[in-house]
């Protein structure tokens, strides 16, 4: 096969193939030429797996779907190809060849030469065999560094685009409301501003590479009752508007996301996939979103099987389409024959199909898939001999050194030092007891949507495809002169205590104990963290707390290291560990990042994106609680966290001083100006994260005690100081008022400059004056930080 496969055109090529024409005109012309069956075919995907010998993809069989006959479907066309790389292990070059050949087949089989949009998961890197596994989103949040996340997303997008993928199913913009939920690792954190800024940066990076970013899950999925996956989400309209929706608003407006995925949950009896006020009224009519809404996998069928708001498949299809869902994923179920029958019976107007089709084809036009010179050959195969699959094997590298360097940088910035009595950094220890279930486990750094744990576990005879050094490996390299004794102690969740005695013996013979605990990522019960792996409590899984307590009793300093997908209550370790290091599934470079922090080669600068609880049962709770959510004399449950949102230590100290307020009053449409000096008062370089929280003492509706409205990272050399200026628009004080509209109220506010939600350093008391003002999604989202050198001395 040659590299110049393209749609055949003539001098009288139809208008839809003319890229010089407006997209809307091209799409209208194409819709006008289509039959009903051809229209519907563009509104669903087919789940496939690429061929490891470069042949065409094969339909993937899932227990929730019927077999698909591609030969029967393709003459009408096809909207999407679901996860050709993310279904089975396949060499990237041969996967690209397989996808290329399939796209050529799809285009040649339908009258209009339209290929499919190929989509993949990219939650912690491109979910393909051999691709770099980056830190999970909870680690992105821990960096408090949007620009770094933007660079990572651009690299992920470039890899996807190089092999022929068009759309990525990320980022997850769900705000954590209950840390027992298994998918906490997929989120960015418990604060909507942090989630919005980091998530928007990811969208910008992915879109800059030409990949359609997909915001998920819209909306409420993370607010499920008791933290159970796919459970009802009991919440009021204000919680939805002020906590769960802002990250999506930001990513649509500032990120330019071109797709949104509906959530599985219902809110007050209305499933997201059937909510026209959400998917059309809010998303499109109010926010102006012009992209596509895709179904979460099987979510349209769930309207019949799980929600009971549709009596048959046609009813489910019509309900979802009317609500605003454009594309059924992962495969054809309700949008095929049932939808055609519903139109024929008059149950679904064809105009509703045309509305969705206009969005789908508009996106294909913008991706170049309707152009006359479109070619299925992806950039990675450009110029290659496409007739020799064996020669292609191994020629596409999705885990390049540049990727791993970027993964290292993120992993290092995401390590959070929770406590330290001075034991860290370790200074040339002679004997290290390396203890715990994650001490010598290669996959302990991976989240559930990494390819090895998401797909590779089903192919045990296939190599992992990427290098995953264990903490044992990286500590041996970090401390080459140390004697390292490894003892597992117990499993992640097997409850086995038989090995604890040996672990304690190893500890007593060591100078320092490094206890490596946490999670095993998996799906639907195969792990302790991940989709469908919800926790009954936030106690460490299995017998790990017993192991940790026994090590604390050993008489040796214990450095507790957590490789996990959620925060856990650590009991005595909070006060008795020599140090606690938290890393949220940090990816391929994660153990090296941890080893560097333990040795002091790198200075920790991560901050908690979620609170660490004091006890295992005080859930659900986040730092965003109102006054009634705090410790009180009328309840015996103390929700105060062991470590608050935004907390993190480093190996130096900082002094905050010289707070200046430009004016103590500003109009409800104005802004405040603040300035402070941050100085490194220690003897080594470090990074402080200046966080700005807003406290509204009196409001017309109950408010959180405080909420994050801005942040910035400030790297400083020993003795160096910087003057930080902050412009705080009144808009960041807005909230949803009693009438359901977002307002800025006049009144007194506290602007708290803090090292964390529990460590306020400087407070400015200011007042908003003038009339109450209504704002909307076009409001100013950010407090703007700028830096300038401060006088030394």
TrEMBL record:
Pfam families: Fn3-like, Glyco_hydro_3, Glyco_hydro_3_C. The keyword Hydrolase applies. Transmembrane segments: none annotated. This is Glycoside hydrolase family 3 N-terminal domain-containing protein. Keywords: Hydrolase. Residues 688-757 form the Fibronectin type III-like domain. GO terms for molecular function: hydrolase activity. SUPFAM superfamilies: (Trans)glycosidases, Beta-D-glucan exohydrolase, C-terminal domain. Belongs to the glycosyl hydrolase 3 family. The keyword Hydrolase applies.
